[in-house]
Amino acid sequence: TMLSVLFLSVLGTPMPAYGQLEARTTYSGRGTWFHDGLGACGGENTDEDKIVALSPPMYGSGGHCNKRVKITNTANGKTAYGTVRDKCPGCGADDLDMSIGLFEELGNLSTGVLHISWDF
C-alpha cells in the first residue's frame, strides 16, 4: 500500500551525521603584545583582559569578534586562551597581537615576540 511504500522510503533515507566535529585549522605565526583600549569589535578592554587582535585579512569584517582562541607558545609549550576583540593592522596574516595579561601567560614581555600556534 501507499503507506508501506512511504514508510520504507523514509527508512532508506540516509540521516545526517549530527555531533561530528569539524577539523580545526591550526595557524602558526608571531605573537606580540599591545596595550588594550577601545577594540575594533567595540567595547573597552584593559591590559588584564585576555584579548586577541587579528590581522586585517583574518579580522575581515569582524566575523571572529568574541570568538575564543587557543594559543600555544611553541618554544615552551605553554597554552592560554583569549577572546578576539580587536584588529592588528601591523600583523602578518597568521600573527596575533595579545593583551599584556594574555601574553604573560605564554612568555615574558621582554621577549617581545613569541612563536605561536593557534586555533579558534
Provide a descriptive summary of the structure in words.
- With 120 residues, the chain is an alpha/beta fold.
- Helix content is 18%, strand content 31%.
- Strands 1-5-2-4-3-6 form a six-stranded mixed barrel.
Helix/strand class: alpha/beta
Mean pLDDT: 88
Helix content: 10-25%
Listing every helix as H and every strand as E from the N terminus to the C terminus, the arrangement reads HEEHEEEHE
Q: Count every beta strand, where a strand is a DSSP E run of 2 or more residues.
A: 6
Work out the helix count. 3
Which strand order does the major sheet show?
A: 1-5-2-4-3-6
Shape: globular
State the distance separating the first and last CA atoms: 52 Å
For the CA atoms, what is the radius of gyration?
A: 21 Å
Low-confidence runs of at least 5 consecutive residues: 3-10
- Percentage beta strand: 25-35%
Largest sheet: 6 strands, mixed, barrel
SSE blueprint:
Elements: H1 2-11, E1 27-34, E2 51-54, H2 56-59, E3 68-73, E4 79-87, E5 96-99, H3 100-106, E6 114-119
Parallel strand pairs: 1-5, 2-4
Antiparallel strand pairs: 1-6, 2-5, 3-4, 3-6
Key features of this structure:
alpha/beta, six-stranded mixed β-barrel, 3 helices, single chain, 18% helix, globular, 120 residues, disordered N terminus
Give a quick rundown of the structure.
This protein is α/β, with parallel strands linked by helices. It is 18% helix and 31% strand. It is globular and about 30 Å long.
